[in-house]
Amino acid sequence: MGLADVRIILVEPEGPLNVGSVARIMKNMGLHRLVLVNPQCDPLGMEARQMAVHGSDILEAALQVTTIPEALLGCHRAIATTARPRSLPTTLENPRTALPWLLEEGISSALIFGSEPRGLSNVELNYAQRFVCIPSSSEYPALNLAQSVAICCYELYHSTQQLKPIESGHYSSTPHPQLSTPSSEAVAPLEVIEGYYEHLEAILLKIGYLYPHTTQARMEKFRRLLNRATPTSTEVAMLRGILRQMEWALQLPSKSFVDETSESKES
């Protein structure tokens, strides 16, 4: 029920013991797609293999990439784990209620974890649509990377044992109140949405709506807005069409643009 299409993404993991432990828990819970972003250790070394035990095949099949966008290529949904609130008013959700969103049949999705010493930065969190925080004791809230992955993988596996398909094709859990759920065929892949963000940022800088020193904060707000909408590929194409028209208009002399606009209205 969707586990085969869920990627576990580790961003710059530093400890081979942790990487091996992650492979083992993934094997325990029926997950098989491990992606390592710029690993800072040898994921195929002896230490990692010793911890992986029967999960060594997951280590050997793990994809190694240099950036998070590469890790998300082909994904439609992504959730990031974090232990700290963001500057934007984004809800940190409980894994038990949020993670079933990744399990819709036919949807490729990802669960992103940060490196051991620092977690995920705000820039890295921008690549996700939702954010989970694992509840823990205030006396010692920090969790080891492998522990965090274990808890989340268990919740994903547990969800597949509890959720029952209903007539609409979605699961019976309550979806995120701020996110629509269009059909799996229609949802825009994350790389398509990321391409739109890059295009939008370039245009907004060109027209003076953004300034270099405010770009990151403003673009985070645009990301948050579009992530709530869960746009389809057709809708993203429409938005990019608007940007291309703006680029065309910017290349015209101002008088020519006014004349052509007037002619268009008259016709």
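^ that was protein a. below is b, sequence first then the tokens
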Amino acid sequence: MAEQTKIQNPQPAAKKPVNSGVGGIKNASWVILICFILAECFFHFVLGSGSNFKDGDNANAPLNLLGTIYKGGFIVPILQTLFLTVIVLAVERWIALSKASGKGNITKFVANIKAALAAGDIAKAEKLCADQRGTVAAVIAATLGKYKEMHNNTELAKEQKLVQIQQTLEEATALEMPSLQQNLPILATLTTLGTLIGLLGTVIGMIKSFQALSASGAPDSTELSTGISEALINTAFGIATAAFALIAYNYYTNKIDNMTYAIDELGFSIVSTFAATH
């Protein structure tokens, strides 16, 4: 079969390596620690401020919502830590995956690459990768580099060349995926952990409420209301943490899936083009 693919010597600018540009927080334990310190400070110095309670004493009945939240007990700063961690990691993943998506629309990029491959213009496909940047472009650029190498190789059989191209695609994808999925397991864990910690606070609050009811004589209304407040506040924080973590996790997982589909589609096109033209 006649050679149809145009292998051109790229200009110096096209030889620049394509950088996926995916950054992010490598060690989330520092995020959790900082969020815990902030949550403890907010709990004691803002929520526990005397201005939020009767007679300026946080042991008395609360005067506003901040004081009511303080009455949620020691579980509150733990839940606030989890909630702050979810917010920080969600923002961190948004920034990282925005860089990973590249400078243009991925769907349009896929269509342009497929058009360049159909026309047999590998040099144009490489330029598109250099312009697009991001994870998909980095993987495809590496695969196109192997395409050119195999095109000039006269020792290997066609089937061996196809295997080499496919292997390069898989290796490049495997190198990029960890940076995309970084910190997502923590978000997935917080989805469950937030609910469980909130449930623990709810149970503790209900125990205090029943203790107030079981006291001899008239029930202590202050103790009863404190226990109920603790239960409801912890429930609210737990649900909010779990809901936000679940939304963030599913949203970013979907973005990663879209990038993976684009890589698979273009990888198949590159292998098919090589098989048809060599």
